[in-house]
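Work package 3, deliverable 3.1, input record:
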Amino acid sequence: MASVRLKDICKVYPNGLEAVKNFNMEIEDKEFIVFVGPSGCGKSTALRMIAGLEAITSGELYIGDKLVNGVEPKDRDIAMVFQNYALYPHMTIYNNIAFGLKIRKVPVPVLDEQGNEVYETDYKKVKELERYLSKLKKYKEKSNEIIPELEQAIINTENELEYYKATPQKKTVLKRIPKAEIDRKVREAAEILGITDYLKKKPKEMSGGQRQRVALGRAIVRQPKVFLLDEPLSNLDAKLRTSMRAEISKLHNKLQTTFIYVTHDQVEAMTMGTRIVVMKLGVVQQIDTPSNLYNYPANKFVAGFIGTPQMNFFNCKLLKNGAEIMINFIDADISFTVPQKTLSHINSDYFDGTKSVILGIRSEHISIEKNKYPHKAKCQVSFIEDLGIDCQLYGDINVNGVDSITESPTRLVLKAPAGTKFNTGDIKEVYFDLKNIHLFDAETEHTLRVDK
Amino acid sequence: MKLLAKAGFSKQIFFKKKEAVVGKGEKIQGFLMAVIPFIGFLAFTAFPLGLTIFVSFTDLHSYDLTTLQWCGFDNYIKLFGLPMFKDAVVNTLYFLLSVPINLVSQLFIANLLNKPLNKTFKKVARLILYIPTIIGGVAVALIWNWILEPNYGVFNSLLSALGLEKIGFTTTKEWFMPSVLIIKWWSAGLNVLIFQSALANVDNSLKEAARIDGASERRIFFSVVIPQISPMILYTLMIECIAAFQEMSVMQIIAGNGVGPSNSAVTLSYLMYRMTNENIYTEGFGLASALGIVLGIVVIIVSVTINTISKKFVSYD
């Protein structure tokens, strides 16, 4: 159990590709963090850097209070679950889970002839600390500015070094974990995951969901400080994914360990994470709780990425007219007027009628129900997807245009009651809930919100 | 249709059957395709095998089969009593050492070449290893014969330049087989390529998972990588073992006089060859056939043994 801190973590591949740019984050103990983003956004690279499978180009990574740049994965006290499970195909499930324990050596106290524990200065530890200290100091020399975390780490290490030099420690030797203990741990993990009956089988004989449980079991038995999960559910079918999602959440509650979970699926992110990191092209877009991401997206990308169907975006201009704000759609013949109060949280610099803004509104905030919301617009129906519980109506607010198959800047998606039937080309009235709009700068795509 | 259904035929089965019917032309085509290799097998495998078994029980000293005389198990009894037979067995077994030596070192090299090293270095190394396979075993042996030549060879020139005594690599019993093993080592670069491709196919995430599990590089190699490529190892082991039982060309090239220093170039294959050439009048085809049968049986036993033992270690998962 430990916190994880990322300080300006960067990853540049030898071919010049910047996979991760200046990743800064503090992950607290016992959090369930989800890295989410489209493929190629650097989320897996970030996770692999935390795991130690990928070298960190620049920046510092701390697990607990320890700087772990360049530390071997096995010494980081982490466990990882891979997308393709990465079970050893030639080993039984039991051996797959036990492998990490079998090869591990743990310190066992040395006893003298009388059976008493032996104490002496732990020269190995002293040496290790000295090496670690010199590494920290090297980092300090390299960075131009003063990094408080690094300073703290240096002080802590110096104190620790003093302590170990002065105080004799219980003398220990490294020994393999006894078979009985391994057996107990493996069975315990198998019990938690409900795979006790399969321990003698080979991975090939198991289904995807069972294999993923084994992969989780392999991680559990090592009792790591941090659990890393790299798209663990992507290879499963939709139904199984939903149930495994719940199981992983439960597992997190049970183990009370820090989880870092990578996915491209925003539903997984929203349902599992205590906090979510949204990434795009190696840059962190927003780090926040699921509800904050949904209600207060920091930019257009986050707004579009979180929530299904995707948020509707329209190009607009805002003009202040006394105590009211006019919202003029650029690509369609629509104009709304709202009291300034409604947009009081928006940067008022944009109310001059010249700056282009992007208006974002979720499909659930547009309705075809008559007069549900005060602001009315016309919409040309394109097609309807009936989902049983409700419908998704695709239309175009540019009623004079030709229905296009591709995305257009005037495309509109809204939720309609189940069983709604329209013909393609019908012109219907839709009602906008302008209390729930999101406004972004057309160029930077940042939110125009000035408070939260 | 109704009748058929009553008779227990479902519609589907009826149509399926109809679909599966092949045309007459196709049948003939299929028959011809099968018959050609079958005739080949009869003519060039089954018949010679039968003939060899038959001849091994006769006394035959020429290609004229009318001259053969039935002699029962005499050839087999005579074979085990031959003075050179023991040498041949010892030398063949000695040469079999090349199999583990080569496979282990080739696997090691393949693993090394699969590491992220300098690309040019890798290419050059691969070329050096693979050239002997391209130019063939005989040419390689001839080149090495010159390198190991007792008087003017490269090694001995070097040794005498350093003021050391020359070594009769190809002329002394002690050095003969080691020289052969060295030559053989150089002419088997193909296995390096086979291992390289097998190693490259091992799922990288398995190694990463083992790294996170705390395994050392060596541990990962032996506990994860080797089991993954074990089918390839078995395949090369089989091929190399069978080939090693039949080897004679390298020894013959560097021995020069056939039997080599103190019979050290005499292998079972060479013994067989000798029986039908130099010693055709004293030994002849009957004895050679008997030796061939014995060698064949030994190879089959070894192959089956390897295959049986390997079932425990080889993983096809």
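The longest strand of chain B covers residues 58-59.
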